[in-house]
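A common beginner's mistake is to predict each chain separately and then try to dock the pieces by hand. The better habit, illustrated here, is to supply every component at once so that their relative placement is modeled jointly.
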Amino acid sequence: MATLSSSMASTPNPKPRLRGVVFDMDGTLTVPVIDFPAMYQAVLGQEEYLRIRAESPSGIDILHQIENWSPEKQQKAYQTIADFERQGLDRLQIMPGAAELCGYLDSKRIRRGLITRNVMTAVDLFHQRFGITFSPALSREFRPYKPDPAPLLHICSVWDVQPDEVIMVGDSLKDDVRCGKEAGAFTCLLDETGRYDSPEYANVDHKPDFKVSSLVEIHTLLESKFHLEP
Ligand SMILES: [Mg+2]
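With all components supplied together, the output reads:
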């Protein structure tokens, strides 16, 4: 290694090494089919929904909102969330570029993991329906879930890699980017519609290292910014 680096001293390679990519599922590997605003309203009621939305410019954490409700009320809320998720599953589609990106990562022997706040049955269905498997794949049964960095740190330890050798890719600033940043990983925000360009996101605490509007762009991003080495 020493010989190699000294022979390359005139052309140093400043690119960080990348050994693994961790994906969010809903809205990242799959086309968004869950109507989240409708789900939040159904769970919280319109008045409470509007109040919480005004207080949380970067988005509502519905699981957190219902955490301290009475068991009875909470059970009903989980039921409503499950109904919305089930409807979403019926219409599940893979995100354009996802299969190609996974094929590219496999060709480079780069690890692929998944972290979702959805349930494990949804992950199983995703794996079955599209024939692409992520490992580890952590669902909300793994506590604490995103945006806590714990699931990402867990994946790094299973892979035996450092967090800064991993990139977290997701469509949520408050969950995916925050989880990635707090774990010490690189982060890439998938913003298909440019909604995060809006001024309300200018002063958020967690900013992504990269932003793309399609998974198709990630191939070039990884090639140009990283040294891919398993
Ligand atoms: Mg998502």
